[in-house]
Design a protein that fits this description.
The structure holds two protein chains of two kinds. By secondary structure, chain A is of the alpha/beta class. Chain A has ten helices and 13 strands. The chains are: A alpha/beta, B mainly alpha.
Chain lengths: 328, 150
């Protein structure tokens, strides 16, 4: 795997927008903007999803008094075919656009790519953005929303929301110091109703490779935060490290944090391209700012799932990208 | 080797915990629907002059209507989650699959949306239903050549 040290990359600002269920969840008060209806009064869920990405981008820039035209490049992705949402939103921005796809690992894939541009002095203002929507993801990957076939207990619930982050080389409270571009693992996994367990293998390998390469012990980080392994995938990750003799007691998973799994009827927990950024940019960054954490490793996990490949009995490859955020 | 270790751990956490409960709930729902259908049959046969075959059709239509309405108001999926195959296997599942598709693709309009998508889940049932009835017909025809009468 490719490991990178960054010396000059800072998180200048973030923007978070979330849907109704996320608003009702334990982190509901932390988001910059929430909607009470996931259609937002618009004509389709696709339009509503693009609206969320637009809002998140604007909020992140507005906090610094910046405008959309002030950024050098937008790096964004989502879960739609042809990353349609990001592509559409990029049409409104008067700057370069780099579309990325890493399924639910998109946020950290975009962050790593953006960090390279900032660290090397290629760009001064890089906006990274990722979005997902329960309604559009269901139709993309699964069944109609009102379809009554029972869902398995291993299923995860796609987070509706969008997270944007502005990266600059001028010092701010949070610094990006290390990163690992993940490797794809194709373990023969075909169960589309359990993405958390599938992705835990990628998370395990990325974390392990990151720790070995940078010569850190897992305790070096105050928290190792995975994207959307959910309650089941988290247990698998923990057990994998336990067998290696490493107690991953500082592990958190965004999919477990964004919803109240007991009360909110989300099966194994949250997932989606917005799951990792919505939790990282709010709860995790707050803990870094208020001093509870000094350093965290955020590992966004993605199942590179395509329904057509699955119908053809092909397995689902998985990937995870890691980024270290530190209080500067 | 690493992958095998991962698979062993994964198996530990992903076994469905309540198969017996699922069987029981599906059975109760299926039986309940059969009971309701029979009740409707008895009532229609006793209090109307409708023919038996027509009454049978009315019973199917009743369940289709109820399932469609429940899907439309967003309640069917909650029941489906509880009763599983008990709702999914009877004609209610067929009804739900069509209505849910129609609702899902309403944004793409009447032609590329609802019209072309409405059978995308139910289509298999129709395709293989027609196929199976053809095969059944051929077998029946061959049997009649040997003097078998239904």
């Amino acid at each position: 795997m490719l490991h990178i040290n960054f010396n000059n990359v800072y998180v200048s600002s973030t923007g978070t927008v979330a849907g109704r269920k996320e608003k009702e969840g334990p982190l509901g008060d932390l988001f910059d903007k929430t909607y009470s209806d996931n259609l937002h009064g618009l004509k389709s869920y696709e339009t509503a999803e693009a609206q969320m990405m637009k809002e998140a981008n604007s909020i992140a820039l507005n906090k610094l008094g910046m405008k959309l035209e002030d950024i050098d490049i937008l790096i964004a992705g989502d879960l739609n075919n042809q990353i349609a949402c990001s592509s559409k939103v990029s049409g409104l921005i008067n700057s370069s656009f780099l579309g990325v796809y890493g399924a639910c690992s998109t946020s950290m894939l975009a962050t790593l790519t953006g960090s390279i541009l900032v660290d090397k002095g290629i760009a001064n203002n890089v906006l990274v953005s990722s979005t997902s929507s329960f309604a559009t993801a269901e139709r993309q990957f699964r069944y109609p929303i009102e379809y009554g076939g029972p869902k398995k207990f291993t299923t995860t619930y796609t987070v509706t929301g969008s997270g944007a982050m502005l990266l600059k080389n001028t010092p701010s409270e949070i610094k990006i110091t290390e990163g690992t571009f993940g490797q794809t693992f194709d373990t023969g996994w075909t169960n589309v109703n359990d993405m958390g367990s599938a992705m835990s293998y990628a998370a395990y390998n990325t974390i392990k490779s990151h720790l070995i390469n940078f010569n850190h012990h897992a305790n070096y980080y105050d928290a190792i935060v995975t994207g959307d392994l959910s309650s089941i995938g988290s247990k698998i990750l923990y057990d994998m490290f336990k067998e290696d003799g490493i107690d991953l007691n500082n592990h958190l998973d965004c999919g477990n944090l964004i919803f109240d799994i007991e009360k909110q009827n989300v099966f194994a927990g949250g997932s989606g391209a917005a799951c990792c950024p919505l939790v990282t940019y709010t709860k995790i960054f707050n803990e870094l700012k208020n001093g509870k954490y000094k350093r965290v490793l955020v590992v966004a996990t993605g199942a590179l799932h395509d329904p057509i490949y699955v119908f053809q009995k092909k397995s689902i490859p998985v990937i995870a990208h890691a980024v270290t955020f530190e209080r500067s | 080797m690493e992958e095998q270790r991962y698979k062993n751990i994964t198996d530990k956490y992903t076994k469905s915990p309540n198969i017996f409960k699922n069987y029981l709930l599906a059975f109760v729902m299926g039986a309940g629907m059969g009971l309701l259908g029979n009740l409707e049959f008895d009532l229609l046969m006793r209090f109307t002059n409708l023919e038996r075959t027509l009454v049978m059709s009315i019973i199917s239509v009743t369940f289709i209507l109820i399932a469609s309405l429940l899907t439309g108001i967003g309640q069917y999926k909650k029941l489906g989650q509880i009763f599983g195959a008990g709702l999914f296997v009877p004609i209610t599942g067929f009804s739900n699959s069509m209505v849910s598709e129609a609702m899902e693709f309403r944004f793409e309009g009447p032609v590329y949306g609802v019209g072309s998508r409405v059978f995308s889940l139910a289509g298999s049932v129709i395709t293989y239903g027609v196929g199976a009835s053809f095969i059944y017909g051929v077998i029946y025809y061959i049997l009649t050549l040997f003097g078998v009468r239904m």
